[in-house]
Structures are given as structure tokens and as C-alpha cells.
Amino acid sequence: MSSSLPQHCPSPRELDDLELLLSGALAPRTRFDDPRDADALVTLDLPEELQGRAVELVDPEGMPLARLEADGSLVALTHAQYGPFRRLHLSPAQARSSYPGRSWIPVDDALTTEEIGRLRHRGALVLLALTGAGTPRLSPVALVRATLAAAAELPDAVVVAVPLASHGDPAADARLRERVVAAYAGGDAVWPIPPRAEEPTLTDFPAGVAAVVRRDRPAPAEQGLVLFFTGLSGSGKSTLARALMDRILEQGQRTVTSLDGDVVRRNLSAGLSFSKADRETNIRRIGWVAAEIARHGGLAVCSPIAPFAETRTEVREMVESAGGAFFLVHVATPVEECERRDRKGLYAKARRGEIPEFTGISSPYEAPDDASVVVDTTGRSVEDALDDVIDALAESGLLDVRTSGSRSRVEPFPVAAAPAPAAPSLFADPTPSRRGARAADRLSVIFVCTANVCRSPFMELTAQSIVGDAVEFASIGTDAKVGRSMDAVISEFLPQGVTNGHFRAAAVSEDAVDAADLILTAEASHADHLVERHPRAFRKIFTLAQWAETVQGSDLRGRELIEWAGQYRVPRAPEHDITDPYKRGRERAQVAAQRITSLLQAGIPPLTRD
Ligand SMILES: Nc1ncnc2c1ncn2[C@@H]1O[C@H](COP(=O)(O)OS(=O)(=O)O)[C@@H](OP(=O)(O)O)[C@H]1O
Ligand SMILES: Nc1ncnc2c1ncn2[C@@H]1O[C@H](COP(=O)(O)OP(=O)(O)O)[C@@H](O)[C@H]1O
Q1: What are the distances in angstroms from CA 51 to CA 11, 34, 72, 302, 341?
Q2: What is the pLDDT of residues 326-358, one digit of tens each?
Q3: What's the short name of a Pfam family annotated to this entry (predicted)?
Q4: Is 157 helix (H, G, I), strand (E, B) or coil?
Q5: Which end of the chain has fewer beta carbons closer than 10 Å to its terminal beta carbon, N or C?
């Protein structure tokens, strides 16, 4: 479509507002507010030269969406046609005629099992997914997917998506939301979701919703990651970046793309000079590629000089808006030391005036004030300087490559190994249910609590009732009352038909830990106890709740799942602990039994092959 009008591409937030204005969702408003009005809600920031003129508003691909007349009125040109779930973007008029007489539920986060349960008796519903730029908890597309997954749990619910963007002001956002929801509902009932007392965890969602949330908010170790080294020429960026990449590749958890300054300049940025504008273009290109790598969960290691703070910030924003984490390493070796090294003879040439605009000599370097770690390599070995980076990375929770380092080598956990030999005597006090030789291809899972009379036997027997003999289960205690039978109180809550007659408590032993494929504990303290004494087993030790949360949303099964979870576990959290109900009354035992049962229902079936 050709037009002699000047074109302007609004920001993502403004594009969302434009869609609401054009669809009638903000009626009676039909145009952007004048930013000078005290009650202005939806505003459009036009460059000065376009103000007061007729302008064509286009999307980022240049598709004309609307004409903004000089008097501020809007004329719709084309509907936005692309974008995920476009078909669910209905105007209020379309939605009311498609779904008359339904109740309306505004949704701005993934719905929990409890919230969905409360909606079950509300009859026919429209879940109004309030997506839009700046949705704080989930990406817009994940919010729609999570809402569709919630609708699938309800007897009669449909989903309509509305691009309600956040304007950064809670009061203004609340007013806008009220207006938009009223426009959709017309006179029909609206049932808001009550505010939550606390943030839900993954186990609070039904499996379908949890899978969406998990994928959209990956644990730090699963997130895309950009490691960005900045510093003067000769400071040690490439040397440290290369050494770090070697470490990452040795560990084998992730693949790496290198975007080294010199290499990029020979390829992606061939032909660019060292003027300020060309350096900015060079860094933006690196940032763009790195952000795309991060968008797909990959890891990019960049090592250009990147002398300008503003361009580095742009790269950070590109990476973060692609869902990646940005880790900035300032290699702060002073210019005197870089010049002393002068590996490529460039400083000498720059001093002689043969290279213009040389960073640190005749062109500025703006030291970052937002670096995740600062390393001066002067007088230090590469290994030593690298350790600073590796330690800071591990502390950030983004990537831990300390385990394959020279200082603390830990043998990798041998998963999916060749068929295991028949397990040696697993327990100090073998019982009939545990004594038989372990089938080579069956997984062996051990539950651990303190005395092995209450929580862990409950886990063992309940898990067995969920998947039967497909998996071999046992339980042990860190401070076991060896030979005792199972606590009668919690036994009352065992699944129907499950008896505890054969059960006798057993203690942790080296053999038991070695032979298990997976060890699930009631509390973090039990896991710590085991890891302290059996450090080689650390990858297969989880708290039960941590395991259940980690495996939500993974499509893997059996040994592959255990191997994956060993690398990408969710961090431990205090609320994961299942506190000890032993001798604390029937009610506490029931609460523990119910929690264990639902965690097992989430975490144990994926261990079977099909
Ligand atoms: N004028 C000038 N200033 C700085 N550096 C120069 C210049 N001319 C060439 N070189 C060589 O180019 C490498 C830096 O390129 P970068 O792409 O990392 O620079 S920038 O980020 O675009 O500023 C840099 O490589 P490193 O030493 O690896 O940093 C230099 O070898
Ligand atoms: N601790 C250290 N860390 C990194 N490089 C060091 C260290 N000590 C000395 N060097 C030397 O400094 C030079 C750094 O060069 P390089 O890594 O190419 O820097 P840049 O990529 O920042 O231009 C190399 O010759 C390297 O051997």
C-alpha cells in the first residue's frame, strides 16, 4: 500500500492501545488521549516533526494499521493479521455476539488448580486473557496458552484474548482494565479472580498449565544466556572467553556460539570502520544475533571491546526481552598493561598515529557500572582470572561450571549406564519386598526421611501403588529406627488396599545410595545429609517436591528424565520441605499424606517408560 503520508511505528504498548481503541474496547474513547490532560490514560508519543500532522501508523513490518488525522481522530486501515492466537482477538462486539449470556473472568496470570476449581460451578464462561506489552508474569503468548489449558479443565469455557498493556502505573492500569472488561461483558456477570495470599509454585497448577508456565519461566540454568566480555584491546577478553567456553564444552551441559570481536569483524561486520557509529552498528549486530541465540535457550559468548555504555545497555535489553539472561564481564585490565602486552603491535601503531580512533589511546572506553563481575588480569594467570568469572557465574545461578574445574573435580553421575549388575545387599536389614535381585532395566528409586518409619515408607508404598512394579521403590532413614514397623497414624492414609505389614525401617548405606537411580527426600536437610556423605551422587538427589516441580513440563521419561533433571533442576525452596508429622497427631499426618500423594502423582508416572 503506497501513501504519501509520513509513517510512524508506535511502541509495542502503543500498538496494543491502538488495537483497543480501534476495537471499541475503550469506548467511548476512540482516540489517543492528549498527554497534557490530567486523566490521560492511553497516549501516543509522536516525534516532534509529526505532531499535529496526519500520520500513518504502521506495525514493525510496515503494515499500515490506522491513519491518525491531524485532529487526533483515528481511521482504521487494516487489522493486524499475524501474531499467535490472532483468531482469539475478538472485539467486544464480536465476543458478545459469539458468546451471549456467559459470565466473564478477567485472567492476567496462569490459573491455579484451586482457582479453576472455584470456577467450575459458575456455568458457561469466557476467560478474558488480558495479554499485552508489559504483562508482568508470563509472556503474552504463554498467558493465552495457559488460559487455554485452564479452559480445558473447565466444563464450558472459551478464551478471548485482549491486548491490555501495562502502563507502569497501577492506578491507571486498574482503571483501564475495569473499562475494558466492562466493554466485553456488556451487562453480563463478571467474576474476578480474588487476589492471592502467596505466589503459587508449579505444583499449584494443573499439569497442562504448569507445563506452559515452566516453559515460559525456565529455571535460570535452562534460560538462554549471553556472556558478554567487554574491555580494552589486549585486556584478555578473548583469552578468558575461550577458556570459559572450553570449560563449558568439557562439562557438556550446553553448546556454545562464540561471537568474538575480531571474528565478527571478519564476517558479520566485515567492512565496518572503528568510527563511533560503526562500532555501535557492530555491537548491535552482535547483540541481535546473541539475543536470537538466547531466545532459543542457547548460550552465546561475546568478546568485543564494546566501548559505549549505551550500546551495551541496548544489547542487554535485546537479550532480556528475548527471555535470555545477560551476564556482563568487565575485563578491567588497565590500558598501561594492555599496551605493555601489545600482542598485535596495535598500541605502538596507535601511538605513532598510524591507527586513528584507537580505543584507550585516541577513542574513549566507558567502563561499565553494571558488570556482573570485574576482572583485572594484570599479574594473574588465566586460570586464576577465569575462576573469578566462573565463581560469579555460579553464584548468579545461571551456569555452574565449577564441577569440571581443576579445583573441584566431581565425577559425573553415570546415568543410562549399561545394565546395572544385580544390586549388592542394598540395606542393612533387607526385607522380602526389597531383597530380590534388581531387574537390570527397572529404575530404582529410594525415598529418604529421618527415622524411616513415617514419611519415607508412606512415599515408598504410595509410589508403588501408583506405578506398580514398573519401578523398584525402597525407603531409608538418615537416622533410622532400624527394624521398626511403619507408623500406624500415617498408615491410615495409605491408598486403599495398600498394607504396611512387611515394612521394616532401614538405614542409609553406601550401597543403597550407589545402587539407586534416583533419591527423593522429604526435606532439604536429608538431601544435604546425603550429598555431604556421598558427593558423587549429588545429581540424583532431590527433595520430592523439587523433583515434582522440576519434571513438570518435561516430555522426557525414565532415565533420560533423571539425567536431564540432574542438570536442570529447579532451585530448592523452603516450601519444598514436607515437615515431619510423626507423633504430631492425625491431622498433621493427613496433611503430610495428602501432600506426598499429590507430589508422587506428579513426579512418579514420568519415571515409567510409557
Ligand atoms: N581503532 C581501533 N580501536 C580498537 N581496536 C581496533 C582498532 N583497529 C583495529 N582494532 C582491532 O579490532 C578489535 C576490536 O574490534 P571490536 O569489534 O571488538 O571493537 S568494537 O567493539 O567495535 O569497538 C581489536 O581486537 P581485540 O584486541 O581482540 O579487542 C583490535 O585488534
Ligand atoms: N590473566 C590473564 N587473563 C587473560 N589474558 C592474559 C592474562 N595474563 C596475560 N594474558 C595475555 O594477555 C593477552 C590478552 O589478549 P586477548 O585475550 O586477545 O585480549 P582481547 O581479546 O581483550 O584483545 C594474551 O596474550 C594473554 O596471553
Answers
A1: 16, 12, 10, 41, 55
A2: 999 999 999 999 999 998 899 999 999 999 999
A3: APS_kinase
A4: strand
A5: C
Residue among 305, 333, 342 whose CB has most ligand 1 atoms within 8 A, to mutate: 305
CATH of region 432-607, choose from 3.40.50.2300, 3.40.190.10, 1.10.730.10, 3.30.365.10: 3.40.50.2300
Binding site as annotated, residues: 231-238
* pLDDT value at residue 534: 83
CATH topology of domain 7-76: Sulfate adenylyltransferase (3.10.400)
How far, in Å, is the centroid of ligand 1 from the Cα of 96?
Answer: 60
- What CATH number does the domain located at 221-404 have? 3.40.50.300
CA distance 248 to 143: 33
pLDDT at 426: 30
**C-alpha cell belonging to residue 471:** 519401578
Structural domain boundaries in the chain: 7-76, 86-216, 221-404, 432-607
What average pLDDT does the segment 93-119 reach?
A: 96
Q: Please indicate whether residue 136 or residue 597 has the higher confidence score (pLDDT).
A: 597
Determine the distance separating the centroid of ligand 2 and the alpha carbon of 333, expressed in angstroms: 9
Q: How is 332-373 classified by DSSP, letter by letter?
A: ---HHHHHHH-TTSHHHHHHTTSSSS-BTTTB-----SS-SE
